[in-house]
Please model this.
Amino acid sequence: QVELVESGGGSVQSGGSLILSCQASGYTYSSLCMGWFRHIPGKEREGVAGIDSDGRTSYADSVKGRFTISNDNAKNTLYLQMKSLTPEDTAMYYCAADRRDWQLLPEYTYWGQGTQVTVSS
Model:
């Protein structure tokens, strides 16, 4: 069983930045594949960024060049650095984990509870 706890969400003005964190426990973190997803009510969950156990990353086209996913294996923590935020980035953000590399597909086994990001114009 993997437990994931996100933090770092909040409200920011358009053009601003935020860093989301996801603390993992309950499994050998370095062997996990991880992802960040976001959900807007009424829309499907969207894969934002993924990172596999070798550190290879993938990004949705909508966030390429603005978001960066990274791992700190020593701290069992996943990060999502978000820059140049726009109101369209407003959503609940979730981290996810699995032993398989699902990249941006919402097939991960383990999910956090989410952290809200709100970007105002």
Summary: The mean pLDDT is 95.
